[in-house]
Amino acid sequence: MGKYQKGLAGIFESEETILKAAEYIKNMGFKKFEALTPYPVHGMEEACGIKRSWIPYVTFIAGVTGLSFGTWLTWWTSAVNWPVNVGGKPFFSLPAFIPIMFELTILFAALSSVGALFYAAGLPTVNPPIIDPDLTSHKFAIFIPANDLGYDEGKLREVFQKLGATEVKLSEF
Amino acid sequence: MLKRNQLVLGNKSLKDVTDDVLLPLETPPSKGWLGMLAGALTIFAFYLVIIGTVIANGMGLLGVNHPIAWGTMIVTFVFWIGIGHAGTLISAILFLFRQKWRTSVARTAEAMTVFAVMTAGIFPLLHTGRPWLDYWLFPYPNQRGPLWVNFRSPLLWDVFAVSTYATVSMVFWYVGLVPDFATIRDRAKTKLKKLIYGSLSLGWRGTAKHWSHYEMVYLILAGLSTPLVLSVHTIVSFDFAVSNVPGWHTTIFPPYFVAGAIFSGFAMVVTLMTLVRMGFPQFKDYITLDHMEVMNKIIMTTGMMVGYAYGSEFFIAWYSGNMYERFAFVNRAFGPYAWSYWVMITCNVLIPQIFWFKKARRSIPLMFVVSIFVNIGMWFERFVITVTSLHRDFLPASWGMYAWSFFDGAILFGSFGMFLTFFLLYLKGVPAISIAEIKPVLGVGRQEGGHHG
């Protein structure tokens, strides 16, 4: 495959220990490590040094696109391509077209945001390696890939143990 | 300072939560569930036969005719689409307001939304009379000119609103489910289960980076769904309000419809939740009496809001000085359809007043009964709006009564079979409480206060 990286994973049993561990690993200078949690842990972004998500920009651009498309569609079909006189209303009846423009704004923005999430989170991934099946239920893990700068298996095992990991294992992510 | 009640009872650990929520998925179905599914499937099959008959023979099988061209199908469409609104209110609006209690009911309420919108969507499609031509509703380049749809028509706005709403609420629901599907995948004992839930989970692994994006998208979807849900029932009300039929042509319709939608939706949530608590007793620690009480408060509040709207409509009908408008309302309350009007008032305004009493708000049997009454009342509200306004409008020469037929009743009854079939299958196939969302709020209200935030 080659898609996945080998590396070392430390398994933790509580929110507090993994938060501290993530902070510590970040301060050791690791860049490519991953923190796996069964639910979004409050404060994890800061602990891992993750920047604010860029997805809102996608939402905004998609929303503007949807709005423009709605405006263009209603204008072009009603006033250009085949203008039909409906009850003497103007061919481009802007107030009546607002619901269409609004719904298309929401539709484009929502679907693009979800598309962006799929891209950002690498979804869908077929059969990804699972470090520990409990990581989606009640355990937490930090994974450091072997190609990260300063990776030293023996030393990291000690670090993980010191940070309170209940299990340290070689794995793949 | 007021002490906060625990959101989740029984000092659950993280693993307890996973075990409890997934219990219905990991145990064979109970007799009660199988019995209910058999019943729901029977009604669903009956419904399909009725729909088939209506499609084959035409809309004439229903009571719609001159002067009442909108009947059961439109009434029931508005009824179901309104029910959907509570799901989005709970999942999106209460999320934006940081109401943590929403967490344990959000998933099921959203499922209800999705199924209610699916049930609702069938009616206008059938009501076109020639459902095989329903794709004409969408603007697409065609060989008839191209002749485009009329974007000035509220009925077309409705096509866009309802289809957008259905799409976005399904996507919102699914995004919320992805991490939970991953949990099921990782616990699956059989290959087949691993394959099904593995595919549904899309390979989700829950790294901090993924969660960061995920939470952002969840917030964005909540932010987008909030105006969307308000727009949907607003546009449904435009179907009526933009016409000039007395009783329909009123500016109060959008807020009045939205309040009514939330009212009926919460009633349906309470109906379903009391049943879910009965069928799956382990959920009582998650969907606590406190949750039910809060929902009952919302039912009473929104009930009074629709009550205010009923009153306001009457006042404006008198104050406007328009004789047709005035007649429409006097006719509603005292004409041949007065019984339906008073059923509506009793069920929607009077009966929920019992929730002033704390004992009533916290009594499961009582709230079940009240929620059923509200469901009935809200169906009648739409009946009153649609049928009584049409049956006597401007010219007495064109007055008439709705010729309720067997098919009217059958199609209303059958739609419940469809809804319940989906809902029952959902309870056994999908985690009915969001596992990933409930875990961060486990600590709320606990004595030791392990969680900050």
> Beta fraction of the residues of chain A?
5-15%
Number of strands of chain A: 4
Low-pLDDT stretches of chain A = none
Please trace the helix and strand order of chain A, writing H or E for each element: EHEHHHEHE
Task: Write down the CATH class of the largest domain in chain A.
Answer: Alpha Beta
Order of helices and strands of chain B: HHHHHHHHHHHHHHH
Write the CATH fold name of the largest domain in chain A: Alpha-Beta Plaits
The stretches of 5 or more residues of chain B where confidence is low (pLDDT under 50) are: 449-453
Number of strands of chain B: 0
Rg of chain B, rounded, reads 23 Å
What is the CATH class name of chain B?
Mainly Alpha
Class derived from helix and strand content of chain A:
alpha+beta
Mind summarizing the main beta sheet of chain A? 4 strands, antiparallel
End-to-end CA span of chain B: 16 Å
Give the proportion of residues in helices of chain A. Answer: 40-55%
Number of domains of chain A: 2
Number of helices of chain A: 5
Query: Residue-averaged pLDDT of chain B, rounded?
Result: 91
What topology does this entry show?
The complex is a heterodimer of chains A (173) and B (453).
Chain A: E1 6-12, H1 15-27, E2 34-36, H2 44-48, H3 55-81, H4 94-120, E3 140-145, H5 153-162, E4 167-172
Antiparallel strand pairs in A: 1-3, 1-4, 2-3
Chain B: H1 14-26, H2 31-57, H3 72-96, H4 102-127, H5 154-187, H6 191-201, H7 208-241, H8 253-279, H9 289-319, H10 323-334, H11 338-350, H12 358-361, H13 364-391, H14 406-429, H15 435-438
Word description of this protein:
The complex is a heterodimer of chains A (173) and B (453). Chain A has 173 residues and is α+β, with helices and mostly antiparallel strands. Chain A has two domains: 6-52 and 125-172, 2-Layer Sandwich (Alpha-Beta Plaits); 55-120, no CATH class. Helices cover 47% and strands 13% of the residues of chain A. Chain A has five helices and four strands, in the order βαβαααβαβ. Chain A has a four-stranded antiparallel β-sheet. In chain A, helix 3 (55-81) packs antiparallel against helix 4 (94-120). The mean pLDDT of chain A is 90. The two termini of chain B are 16 Å apart. Chain B has a single domain (14-441), classed as Formate dehydrogenase/DMSO reductase domain (Formate dehydrogenase/DMSO reductase fold), CATH 1.20.1630. Chain B has 15 helices and no strands. The model of chain B is unreliable at 449-453 (pLDDT under 50). The chains are: A alpha+beta (173), B mainly alpha (453).
